[in-house]
Amino acid sequence: MTARPVFVSYSQADHEPAHGIVSRLESSGVGCWIAPRDVTPAADWAEEIVAAIAAARVMVLVFSSSSNDSPQVRREVERAVHRRVTVLPFRIESVLPSRSLEYFLSSQHWLDAFPPPLEPHYTRLVEYLQPLLRAPPASAVTGSYAAPPGAAVSGTATTGTVASLFDAAQLHRLESELAGYIGPLARHLVRRAAATASGAEALIVQLGAEIESEVERRRFVTACRQFLRGRD
Question: What single DSSP character describes residue 184?
């Protein structure tokens, strides 16, 4: 997968403005990653999204009432913040972030893109992003994250390590438990964490950190300890 500096996050209801942003940015020489266009055929969708976010310098969030209510958008924003990728909300409706997004977006710079037409707002977006992307990563507003040398992005590269500590049934159970809280990204996160975890307890704690709610995190950790007890 080719790394692109801008990841565009959007709700399906906002397909047209999202692709309008991509068209305008790419015509200005700014590379964009957007699903489903850039998902490799037959690839694991969640893995591709996680890798694309990690490789990006900026996430442009097409923000609307629809994306405000989208669990998938929230998970993508969470991953971007976790990876220290700058999140730039491009607000196409006069709505405020829901409680689940407010924590991640309250300190971000916003671009209001209303009232229509959107074209002048696309121009403003290009003007804002170009100097940001020309700057070295370390001088970006919130910084960007670079994986350490040798770090695996996809769990398939470390299958041998994973298998040495945890069997397939245990990994599947962990994926199912975590997916109940964060959705399909769970599969990729479990595989990646299992490749480096020193034992069951370390793995459980690492995965639990992906869950925002303290109550839900405790519930997840308790459930996982019950079926992984004795592995350490």
Answer: T
